[in-house]
Design goal:
This protein is mainly α.
Length: 64
């Protein structure tokens, strides 16, 4: 007879992948209004002076 060893099941284990924030927000949440407003902002003055070292940074529009 073969013996199979299983990993223990721990119910308090965190997420393997982070959940989408949209899963926790309602359709009418204020964050969607904030996002629409911030997407309209002209950030070219900030972006033109931006210099980085190392890996390629995320675009400010992608982070918001």
């Amino acid at each position: 007879m073969t013996y199979t060893e299983y990993k223990p099941y721990v119910i308090d284990t965190g997420y393997l992948f982070p959940p989408s924030l949209a899963d926790f927000l309602g359709d009418e949440d204020e964050v969607y209004i904030f996002r629409e407003v911030t997407e309209q902002l002209d950030i070219s003055c900030v972006d033109s002076d931006f210099q980085w070292h190392g890996t390629t940074p995320l675009s400010p529009e992608d982070v918001a």
